Amino acid sequence: MVRTAALMLALATPSSGQSEGIWLSGVGGNKLNDICTTWTSANQYDPCTAYIEGLVDGLAGAGRICLTEAASTKQAVYMVVKRLRDHPEDWALHAFWITEKALKPTFACRK
After folding, report:
1. Cα distance between residue 9 and residue 20, in whole Å
2. pTM for this model (two decimals)
3. What confidence tier does 26 reach under pLDDT thresholds 50, 70, 90?
């Protein structure tokens, strides 16, 4: 069910413009940065980790990235948080695009 929802989201997402489309979630870079930099918890799945993990599964399920067996949730979260820190100009984008930009260089699908 999660993969189906992720695939539907990816298919409904236009590839031509990163600011286009209708989103169920209003989580952009500003909100994601707030979630990922202010949340402190001993829980394994804090909101930052859970949200990014869902985005990564959606991107992988739609074939927009290709994960390796060595990929981990911790690595993906680190890569997205680093992208947020290094590129504040992306904060106006939806979190989906920021996550794709963070992961695609490492997890590009080979043809």
Report:
1. 13
2. 0.73
3. confident
pLDDT, tens digit (0-9, with 9 covering 90-100), for 29-82: 888 888 888 765 555 668 899 899 999 999 999 999 999 999 999 999 999 999
Residue 74 inside a domain? The answer is yes
Q: What range does the domain containing 7 cover? A: 2-13+26-103
CA gap 29, 51 in Å, rounded: 12
Instruction: Tell me the residue length of the chain.
Output: 111
Nearest to 54 by CA among 70, 35, 38: 35
Phi-psi region of 38 (alpha: psi -120 to 50; beta: other; left: phi over 0): alpha
Q: Which residue blocks in 13-94 are alpha helix, DSSP H?
A: 29-38, 47-61, 73-86
Please indicate, yes or no, if residue 98 is contained in any of the structural domains. yes
What separation in angstroms does the CA of 111 have from each of 9, 35, 78? 23, 35, 27
